[in-house]
Amino acid sequence: MDSQNEYLYRAATHSKHALITGGAGFIGSHLAEILLKRGYWVTVIDDLSTGRFENIAHLVENPRFKFAIDTIMNEVVMDRLVSECETIYHLAAAVGVRLIVERPVHTIQTNVMGTEAVLRIARRYQAKVMIASTSEVYGKGNHVPFREDDDIVLGPTSRSRWSYAATKMVDEFHGLAYYEKYNLPIVIFRLFNTVGPRQTGQYGMVIPRFVEQALSGIPLTVYADGSQSRCFMHVQDAVDAIISLAESEKTIGKVFNVGSTEEVTILDLARKVIKMINAEDKLPSPNDERIQYIPYEEAYTKGFEDMKRRVPDIQKIQTVIGWRPKKNLDQVLADVIDSLNAQKFTK
After folding, report:
1. Cis check: omega of the bond before 145, within 30 degrees of 0
2. Which of 14, 96, 157, 252 makes the best surface tag, with the fewest CB within 10 Å?
3. Contact residues for 7 (Cβ-Cβ < 8 A; gap 6+)
4. Strands, E assignment, the chain
């Protein structure tokens, strides 16, 4: 039996086989790594449009790991991969504010059509589907902290910035419809700002961007006045939540917030990054020359809107599976700084 057929045979007869769409991305690669450590067979599909092979290069020698370079829109490939698994972790999506603003058509097609393809094929084999959603779906809501059953307010369709939130809402509606209509096991998890090693600042992710700027000795770019606030969760906490949600029968057909509740303004975040990298310096002030303020319309586009606060209510996930994040913001930042520092000195 050749290696490919042996993989298919052993994977098909194994009860713990996961398929990760977008598995070469930041979160997907960490998820693959932890699932393998827990004894799963893991298949990753990624077209490498935003994911990177180096994120999963260290996994390719594992006999329980397989990687397909393709799009989830390739139904022939997806049918074969889904037939081999019991759980699909659907992370493939167009993400990042900059990418969304610059490529709105790509965002809509990737997110809506991609999720529809995954659900349609999952139904053939009754595979459980874990759908990654986002805190962006709360839009301009001001009921903080955000609860899963809150009403949602988005901006006008003339502003493409809200297209990502709208597509992920459609993904949620679609997944829940498959659960109600076809009894397909679906779980939706709304990720709040997730950070850690392997994340890049390429598409607007603020912490790796700040750290890269500070390590390079250039001013940290803060949008607007920096008073907007966020909560940052370590990717290891996120992965732990995602797997725990998948392994529980009590989560099916439900939506869960997954995030940290430690809130920080973007300006204070910039100051903290500078201080952690330059420990001998005094804490930078808001008007420190190492911080550069840029209007949103200069960073993105005219009329750009942002959420003032983004804080999750995580009571639901705590009650159902007992999860809460373990790492605080200082630990998150330390891991990102160490990771990017290591990359800097290996280049």
Report:
1. yes
2. 157
3. 63, 66
4. 17-21, 41-46, 65-69, 87-90, 128-134, 186-191, 194-195, 220-223, 229-231, 233-234, 254-258, 263-265, 291-294, 309-310
CA–CA distance, 205 with 274 (Å, rounded to integer): 17
Residue 346 pLDDT exceeds 60: no
Residue 7 covered by a domain: yes
User: Can you give the residue range of the structural domain that contains 248?
Assistant: 3-196+233-260+308-327
With tokens 């992710």, the residue in question is 205
- Determine which one of 7, 138, 164, 300 is catalytic: 164
Q: Between vectors from CA 97 to CA 327 and to CA 288, what angle results, nearest 5°?
A: 70
Residue 164 a catalytic site member = yes
Q: Report yes or no on 87 lying in a domain.
A: yes
Contact 67, 126 (CB under 8 A): no
Q: Which of 159, 161, 158, 139 is nearest to 150 (CA)?
A: 139
* Confidence at residue 278, expressed as pLDDT on a 0 to 100 scale: 87
Q: Is residue 226 part of a domain?
A: no
**pLDDT higher than threshold 70 for residue 8:** no
**58 Cβ contact list (under 8 Å, min separation 6):** none
Residue 234's pLDDT is 98
| DSSP SS3 for 192 | coil
How far is it, in rounded angstroms, from Cα 5 to Cα 242? 30
Residue 84 maps to which CATH number? 3.40.50.720
With respect to residue 276, please indicate whether it lies within any of the assigned structural domains.
Answer: no
Q: How far apart are CA 166 and CA 74, in angstroms?
A: 24
Q: Please, which residues bridge with residue 222 across strands?
A: 293
Q: What type of residue sits at position 234?
A: H
- Total tally of structural domains belonging to the chain: 1
Q: Which pLDDT score, from 0 to 100, does residue 158 have? A: 85
Residue 114's CB is within 10 A of a number of other CB atoms, namely 22
Count CA atoms closer than 13 A to 335's CA, side-chain side. Answer: 18
For the cut 80, the answer to whether the pLDDT of residue 121 exceeds it is: yes
